[in-house]
Amino acid sequence: MDAAIGPLDRARLLAADFAGRAAQYDRDGSFPFENFDRLSEAGLLALPVARGFGGQGAGALELVRVLGLIAQGDAATALVLSMHYIQHYLLTRDDRFPLHLTRKLSAESVRGVALINALRVEPELGSPARGGLPATTASRQVDHWLVSGRKIYSTGAPILKHYLVWAKTDEPDPRVGSFLVPAGLPGTTILESWDHLGQRASGSHDIVFDQVRVPLDHAIDVRAPAEWQSPNAAQNAIHSLFIAAIYDGVARAARSWLVDFLQQRKPANLGAALATLPRAQEALGDIEIRLAVNTRLIETAAAEQDLGGVAVADAHAVKLTVTNNAVEVVQTALSLSSNHGLSRRHPLERHYRDVLCARVHTPQDDSIKLAAGRAALGI
C-alpha cells in the first residue's frame, strides 16, 4: 500500500476490502488472519507504537478514527486490533512497564504481525473490574515463574504473539499483577470455545496455562491487592473510547446499507422508492442525529485525552451513550427494512448481532450509572 497516503486513507481502503470477506468469516466463525497481514503491510499495527521505538506514535484521536473505519468493514477485526492498540498505547505511558519489554514488544510490532492482548477474565471471577482475586497463579522459582490458570474471552487468541496474564502469586500474602507470557510455550493450550451470537470472527477463545515457564523479568507491576484499588485512568479511558469507536463504526455500516436499501427498494404498491416516505425520512433523520452526537462525543473525548487525559467518568459516559445510540441505530435500520434486514444475504443482520456485543464490554451500563449516581450523592 502506498506509504504516501495517511493512516485514515489506508484504513478506509482496508475496510472496504475487509467488508468483502466479513460475512464468510462470521458464518464460519473462522479467524481473519489475512486482514492482519494487510494491516501490518499498511503499517497500521504499529500505529500507536512510540516514534522512539520505530512506530508512528499515534494519539487517541487518530486511533479511534482508524478503529471506527476498520469496524465499518469488519467489527471482529477492529475488536482484536483495539486490544492490541490499548496495550501499545499504554506501554510508553506507564512507567511501571519494564523498558526492556516495551522495547521488545514495540520492535516486534513494527517488524510484522505481532499482536498482544491482556487476558484478565476467568470462569469463576468474571471480569476483575467488579473486584476479586484471579484464580490464575504465578509461582516463583529460582530463575523463572510458573503460571497456571484459565482465561476466557481471550480476544484474538489464534493470532496473539504475547499474552499479558493477570494473576496472583502463591506467596503467603499474595500479590497481583500481569505476567508477559509469549504464545506457544509448553503448557499453553488454546481451547476453541468461542461460538457467540456476535463478533464471531474475533477468536475470543479460552486459553489454559499449565505450569508455563515465564522469565522472572516478565513480571509486570506485581503488588498487593489493596494497591490496585485505584484504577489506571489512561487504561480505563482509552478502553472505553476504543469500544465506543468500534460500535459506532458498526452502526455506520448499518446506516450505509440502509440508505442504499431505501433508495433502491420500490414496492409495487408504492410505485416509488421507500426513500420517498416521510416515515423513512424521519427514522433516517433520527439515525443521522445519533451518529452526529456519537462523532462529537468520541472525538471531543479523544482529543481531550491527547491534551492530557479525559476524566474516566466522562469516558465511561461516552462509551455508554455511544454504544446505546449504536444499538438504536441498527434496530431502527431493521425496523425499516423488515425481513430484508434479517436475511443473511444482507449484512444488516450481522451488524445487529455485532452491535449487541457492545453491551457486555467493561464497564457495563449498570456499573457506569451506579458510579455516576454515587458521585452525585457524594457516596
Q: Could you explain how this protein is built, in words?
A:
The protein has 379 residues and is of the alpha+beta class. It has 3 domains: 7-113, Orthogonal Bundle (Butyryl-Coa Dehydrogenase, subunit A, domain 1), CATH 1.10.540.10; 118-225, Butyryl-CoA Dehydrogenase, subunit A, domain 2 (Beta Barrel), CATH 2.40.110; 233-377, Up-down Bundle (Butyryl-CoA Dehydrogenase, subunit A, domain 3), CATH 1.20.140.10. Helices cover 50% and strands 15% of the residues. The chain contains 11 helices and 8 strands. The protein has helices at residues 7-28, 33-41, 60-73, 75-91, 99-111, 233-264, 278-306, 312-337, 339-342, 348-356, 365-377; strands at residues 115-119, 137-140, 144-154, 160-169, 176-182, 188-191, 205-215, 219-223. Strands 1, 2, 3, 4, 5, 6, 7 and 8 form an 8-stranded mixed β-sheet that branches. Strand 2 (137-140) and strand 3 (144-154) form a beta hairpin. Helix 8 packs antiparallel against helix 10 (348-356). The chain is globular, with a radius of gyration of 21 Å. The protein starts with 6 loop residues before the first helix and ends with a helix. The mean pLDDT is 94. Residues 13-85 form the Acyl-CoA dehydrogenase/oxidase N-terminal domain. Belongs to the acyl-CoA dehydrogenase family. Residues 122-212 form the Acyl-CoA oxidase/dehydrogenase middle domain.
